[in-house]
Amino acid sequence: VPTVPVKNLTGSSPVNPALAGITGILMSAAGLPVCLTRPPKLVLHPPPVSKSEIQSIPGISHTCRKTTKKQAKKGKTPEEVLKKYLQKVRHPPDEDCTICMERLSAPSGYKGPQLAIKPDLVGKLVKCGHVFHLHCLVAMYNNGNKDGSLQCPTCKTIYGVKTGTQPPGKMEYHIIPHALPGHSDCKTIRIIYNIPPGVQGPEHPNPGKSFTARGFPRHCYLPDSEKGRKVLKLLLVAWDRRLIFAIGTSSTTGESDTVIWNEIHHKTEFGSNLTGHGYPDINYLDNVLAELAAQGITEESLTQEKD
């Protein structure tokens, strides 16, 4: 009779050990051998690393990047900003504006504060070709970060340089002499994010109200490979554009007015992948490159930052 393993004896639920124990008793009573195996161990952090073992990353200057609140671009009205990205449409197509859900041939259904632009004007975004009421686009821009950029609400194409509302903080990055699972041929890039609690600014959900910052400093890991270094360079651009974190409601704890991740996934588990936030994960680097591109950050961004 083959050995039958009974797993997950130390699971987070108190029912798991009980069920495993009962199963073991029943199997023993039936004359079957029982093999009790422990679940894999969660490994969040690498072995201890001394300061002398930490190395800077070739091709990347410094080992630390700080951010403060960057003021949105001023001097141009929303109408002037959007004019760069639009073509006027004299004969609107027979379809709905996906912002207000009214027909494009009818005036905009936007009911907010009065705008200088006429509600029946229609424009087409030059890259993606989607059509909206100009009234609706201006209202959408005014409700956003007002940083000179625009993101198509239909296909998410970005016009201009998108920036976020990440609170001030510090990003450290260096090489440690340990290999990640699945990347035994190279060392590891460790990123340490640190954002302190503070008071929300005018760009945040509740201006003037304090916000919390749980779980900092947060340690994240990349393989020190060619593609891993590429991801790091793009993450530095995302950090400078204040796109890695935001203030909102935590999806894990339900706490509001707290610092949360902002749609760019990081690996916070060093030596295992039990939570889905670790290694090995053969698709991770490609996935995070796609998430960065969705925020308007590609290899072209590296040239733009230098300029």
First CA to last CA: what distance? 70 Å
**Form type:** globular
**For this entry, what is the oligomeric state of its chains?**
single chain
| The first-level CATH class name of the largest domain | Alpha Beta
The average pLDDT value, as a whole number, equals 88
Major sheet strand order: 3-9-10-13
Q: In the CATH scheme, what's the topology name of the largest domain? A: Enolase-like, domain 1
Major β-sheet profile? 4 strands, antiparallel
Residue runs with pLDDT of under 50 for 5 or more positions: 6-15
Q: In percent terms, what proportion of residues is strand?
A: 15-25%
- Tell me the helix content: 10-25%
Could you give the order of the helices and strands?
Answer: EHEEHEEEHEEEEEEEHEEHH
The Rg value, from CA coordinates, equals 25 Å
Count of structural domains: 3
Individual helix count: 6
Q: What structural class do helix, strand and pairing data support?
A: alpha+beta
Number of strands: 15
Name of the CATH architecture of the largest domain: 2-Layer Sandwich
Short characterization:
This is E3 ubiquitin-protein ligase. This protein is of the alpha+beta class and 307 residues long.
